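Protein entry
_____________
===
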Amino acid sequence: MRCSCQKCGEYMVQREQGVESMCVCPNCFNTCSACMGNRTTVKSVEELKLEFLLRTEEEENES
């Protein structure tokens, strides 16, 4: 996934370094790894099911 810098809007460039991979802004040198999922843990099937059910309930309540 490619994204723009959250600070200045410039197109980010990926710097691949295994688990420390991230995007770097060539304009302001801001770094981000949100689109790479590096700052999240792997969720179990049970956790994913629970999240899905909660999201579904929220959507039904909004309708």
Observations:
- The two ends are 32 Å apart (CA to CA).
- Helices lie at 45-62.
